[in-house]
Amino acid sequence: MSISEIFHKARAEDRSVLIGCMPAGFPTVDDSIASMIAMHEAGCDVVEVELPYSDPVMDGPVIQKASDIALAAGVRTRDTLRIIEAVANAGVPVVLMTYWNPVEKYGVNAFARDLAAAGATGMITPDLIPDEAEEWLAASDEQGIDRTFLVSPSSTDERIAMTVANCRGFVYATALMGVTGARTSVSRQAPDLVERIRQADRDLPVGVGLGVGNGKQAAEVAGFADGVIVGSALIRCVLDAPDRETGLSRLRALSAELSEGVRNPEK
Q1: Which three-class secondary structure state does DSSP give residue 173?
Q2: Is 59 tagged catalytic?
Q3: Which end is more exposed in the chain, N or C (fewer Cβ atoms within 10 Å of the end residue's Cβ)?
Q4: 45, 48, 50, 146: which one is catalytic?
Q5: CA-to-CA distance for 29 and 163, rounded, in angstroms?
Q6: Topology at the third CATH level for domain 3-148+213-259
Q7: Please, are residues 152 and 177 in contact by the beta-carbon 8 Å criterion?
Q8: Domain boundaries, the chain
Q9: Mean pLDDT by 10-residue block, N- to C-terminus, for the chain (267 residues)?
Q10: How far is the C-alpha of 38 from the C-alpha of 265, rounded, in Å?
Q11: Matching SUPFAM superfamilies, A to Z (predicted)?
Q12: Which among 110, 113, 111 has a CA at the least distance from the CA of 98?
């Protein structure tokens, strides 16, 4: 099922889509596959696979640490594609989140081809703007990959309009300025940003990320956004666990809590 179809189905059910994030290969390749499948089974509609990167300018300390662990274990781009394939083959809708440098190093056309072959339906590029994405726009069109660019509270109306015009699947609204990480409250800027995006395009789904860490916050964001994106809180379930089974248990519990939140939005 494509990301667009997942958002359409959720809208028909009057709820938001839950997108859960996990770095590829953290803490091992097999562990990351198990984590992603467990997240989906417990209620995450979509799994955002993060390609580990050595200079993640947008990521907070939790994602950075998890990515460092994966990189230290030798996980690279081809391993990430293999992980996506395993998770997608298990019936999990997958999008990839990656900084642009690894894609350029791999080769844009080859990367798009192999990403589509692995079963991913979309890709999020946090440090690539549409103005500089001509090669990616063409490659993603050729391979039928949904592409997601980011907008932030500092984006001008013109920048928002241009960005959403080049998105397919959904647009990623960063609810806070700064790096990722769970917060104690949801940004007050988020509803305003979502409304500004909808003024540019009423049909394109809007996913909100940066800060959601529990079911109550998920329900709050679900009240004004089409998608709720959760990363650091889920990753910490594994990062802080004393063993694999404990980590998976905590991951399932939080995924279920977040899933309950997006299915009962605060409006």
Answers
A1: strand
A2: yes
A3: C
A4: 48
A5: 34
A6: TIM Barrel (3.20.20)
A7: yes
A8: 3-148+213-259
A9: 93 96 97 98 98 78 93 96 98 97 97 98 96 97 97 94 97 67 58 96 92 92 96 96 97 98 91
A10: 23
A11: Ribulose-phoshate binding barrel
A12: 111
